[in-house]
Amino acid sequence: MFSTLDFDVIRRSIGYLFYEGMTFTLTLTALSALGGLIFGTLIALMRLSGYKLLGRIAGLYVDFMRSLPLVLVIFWFYFLVPYIGQWLTGASRPIKVGAFSSSLITFIMFEAAYFSEIMRAGIQSISKGQPAAANALGMTYSQTMRYVVLPQAFRNMLPVLLTQTIVLFQDTSLVYVLSITDFLGAASKVAQRDGRLVEMYLFAAAVYFTISCFASWGVRRLQARISIVR
Amino acid sequence: MKRSYIIGLALAAALGAGQASAQELTGTLKNIKDTGTITLGHRDSSIPFSYLDDNQKPIGYAMDICMKIVDAVKKELKLDKLEVKLNPVTSATRIPLMANGTIDLECGSTTNNAERQKQVWFTNTHFLTASRYVSKKANKINTIDDLKGKSVVSTAGTTNIKQLTEANAARNLNINIIPAKDHAEAFLMVETDRAVAFVMDDILLASLVAGSKAPDDYVISKDAFSKPEPYGIMLRKDDAAFKKVVDAATAALYTGGEGQKIYDKWFTQKVPPKNLNLNTPISPELKNEFAKPSDSPDPDSYK
Amino acid sequence: MNYNWNWHIFFEPNPMGTGTYLDMLLSGLWLTIKTALLAWIIALVAGSFIGVLRTLPSNTAQWIGFLYVEFFRNMPLLVQLFLWFFVLPELLPRAAGLWLKQLPNAPFWTAAIGVGLFMSARVAVQLGAGIASLPRGQKQAATALGLTTAQTYRYVLLPLAFRIVLPPLTSEFLNTIKNTAVAITIGLIELTGQARSMQEFSFQVFEAFTAATVIYLLINFIVVTGMRFLERRVAIPGYISGK
């Protein structure tokens, strides 16, 4: 049974798989994590701001995004983002948004909902005395957040944030449904062209597995170190 | 009095002319001029129309035609440089991505029919093909009725899956229809016995069979789900100025004999990546259409 | 916006001859529910078993639990579904593989099992943490009463642990429902898949996706409300009553 397998197909396509596919996947993961963290922190701040309306809007956004399957959100955004661009800029026709930008916007918007929950927990984990002390020192709200609360919240939550980023790394494979050439997309294109599904999908699984395992091992070590320091 | 009338008329004409040429640059043309780029939608596995070669670059008959259109657009807009961006599309995403401006031309194997014309426009027809199915000879599926109760695959978002769905309902065939993302994936489902047949345009089936590991194992049906239907390069709806340029470019290409040359290159000679020869000389119907280019969605108008 | 809105599309007949487009979406909803429920049963059973393994005093048991969780957590769900659907039948003996591939509802069974196993790793982690969070005295008291390890888990630890992890399990159940949408890649035409088919047949992309979105929101609302009710029902007065 294994005699019919041809693992040479991996060697022949390795450049394409990593140079195009994995580059896309990793770039998308890194930028979405960064964007999602920034946007997510803003949402978390809105929810904790004390302004009822702002908090409600942020809460609705998070609940809304978390209710929907990522696949559906990916379709939505790929078709909708150009119209949103048109609406935002007041252009006469839909704005042209490429596959990468569209996926990036999708993942930032989607992951922000998840990152915001993590950051909210992080901010709430800071004892009330700290912002009170900062306030007593005459710091404004934004200074308190910028210099006192957020750095600590971020540091405390770093392992959780990184774990979520590993989930995000795996989730980016779903852009497959749009025929975009991420790592899995590249593997499937080779697989289907050469009729080598078994070899390519096993290889893709092994690569995702290795990277995720290695990353989660790193996160566990980081967590151990942080918990000692604290 | 009379002179001023004539001057006024001349002025009006000049103004009118000026307005007309300013108006020409609307929609897609304006966008192309402003950005210096044009985005082509291409397919993964519509052999030999639009597919990825060994270096994963999109090539094919429809891609060649599109590049000719790009040249014409460049000339029309008097641009020194026109950057061509490529965006992969599937049968399921191509129409929304055309409507939302992500792609400007869709270079593939898209059937031009009246229903789709409510959403998108097409330029002159570049191929005619009927909807059939491929199955393994060993399965002895001789007619559409033999598909009764079996699993049959087709590509999501195609006219073919719709025809299959409708035939299934009309003839009570109780077929289990599996939608696949693209043609290569659908064909693999037949190759690995997950589905007994794959319903698709016969030319695409022929090229998938030819490129398979054991071409002799497969047979393409005599029964058809449709008449030979026209393929067109897709463009955005309600963009008459852009369509005019594209229509003129394709008409010149087809009537001038160069269309035939491009056709022969992809259908009667070896094509990459597997060096297959599809041995499909141009049909008399398509030859007629090349002589008198048409963008009609009506299959009967090509007889 | 050059888009033809048509909200009446839901009441127009679909090309499958199964009624209207709305019926099409509802049949997708039904398949989503069926797949998610079966997946959830698999996730709960396998997840509980592995979760318990992770808390047993035996090193082997903990290792098995650890490896199981790492295996299913470190691959994208989409890749796992591909492994089950495209790869597994080819690695089996030919007859078995053929039988598997020609099952009439292959995408449904693959999706339910694939999503179920994927989710079971997460259930195992939640439950393991729940058991670990119980005061050590519970287990010691059970041992003192002469309960075997199996009895201790059955009558003491698991009933308490499940109550603790009910809120996170609710969100894992919601994740199970959402994750069934990934199975459109192996040809399961559940709710998202039907919305996509509706878009392909009718070209009304935004109407189709809006309807699917609304249905997902409703499912979410119903599940959250139902689980809150369940949490209150099973809460032990005076002890970990919810949060």
Describe the structure.
The complex is a heterotrimer of chains A (230), B (303) and C (243). In chain A, 81% of the residues lie in helices and 0% in strands. With 230 residues, chain A is mainly alpha-helical. Chain A is flat and about 75 Å long. The relative contact order of chain A is 0.14. Chain B has 303 residues and is α/β, with parallel strands linked by helices. In chain B, the strands form 5 sheets. In chain B, strands 10-9-11-8-12 form a 5-stranded mixed sheet, sandwiched between helices. Chain C has helices at residues 21-55, 59-73, 77-91, 94-101, 106-132, 136-144, 149-164, 166-179, 191-202, 205-234. The longest helix of chain C is centred in the N-terminal third of the chain and has 35 residues, at 21-55. The N and C termini of chain C lie far apart (49 Å). The A-C interface holds A 1, 63-64, 66-72, 75-76, 79-80, 83, 86, 93-94, 170-171, 173-174, 176-177, 184, 197-198, 201-202, 204-205, 208-209, 212-213, 216 and C 1-3, 70-71, 73-80, 82-83, 86-87, 90-91, 93, 174, 178-182, 184-185, 192, 195-196, 205-206, 209, 212-213, 216-217, 219-220.
In short:
The complex is a heterotrimer of chains A (230), B (303) and C (243). By secondary structure, chain B is α/β, with parallel strands linked by helices. Chain B is 39% helix and 22% strand.
Inertia-based shape of chain B: globular
**Class derived from helix and strand content of chain A:** mainly alpha
Low-pLDDT segments, ≥5 res of chain B: 11-22
Estimate what percentage of residues of chain A fall within beta strands. Answer: under 5%
User: Over the alpha carbons, how many angstroms does the gyration radius of chain A reach?
Assistant: 21 Å
- Work out the helicity level of chain A: over 70%
Strand content of chain B: 15-25%
Count of DSSP strands of chain B: 15
Number of strands of chain A: 0
- Terminal Cα span of chain A: 54 Å
Quote the average pLDDT of chain A: 91
